[in-house]
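USER:
Working in pairs, take the chain set out below, taking as long as you need, and write a paragraph about the fold.
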Amino acid sequence: MGAMPRTDAASRVIAATPDRVYAAFVDPEALAVWLPPEGMSGRFERFDARPGGSYRLTLTYADASRAPGKATADSDVVEARFVDIVPGVRVVQAVDFVSDDPAYAGTMIMTWEVAADVEGTKVEIRADDVPDGISAADHAVGLASSLANLAAYVTREAPAPE
């Protein structure tokens, strides 16, 4: 019925330590700041970062006229489970969009990885089994925006060098 399973990916080198970047993956207050792409805000209804744990995140569009929400007119709701967590290295989540539209059905696997790099930390995001309703172009923009937000968050909050 649908297209072949699709994988989208993005990466960025961030001038911060791997531990600092990883910490922003598993802190709901940090995630609510940096994860929503430009033009959206996020709010966690629950968050339990451990293998088998889960979260529910509501993403709200600042201007719903440009991008209607998947769950309501101005929001997306994400139900996610933590599939694998390797502290300081990787977080794997099984993500489902709450939507009546079958184009957003199915579970997307999101893998966030950090690795030491000469310039700080290389962050790689891989999204496997992306729902057909999410265009590759929009997803690329969203992933890049989240990475830019992450970079700004972890470098802004970093203590001043001595």
User: Anything to note?
Assistant: The chain is about 20% helix and 40% strand. The domain at 7-156 is CATH 3.30.530.20 (Alpha-D-Glucose-1,6-Bisphosphate; Chain A, domain 4). The chain has one domain: 7-156. The longest strand covers residues 75-86.
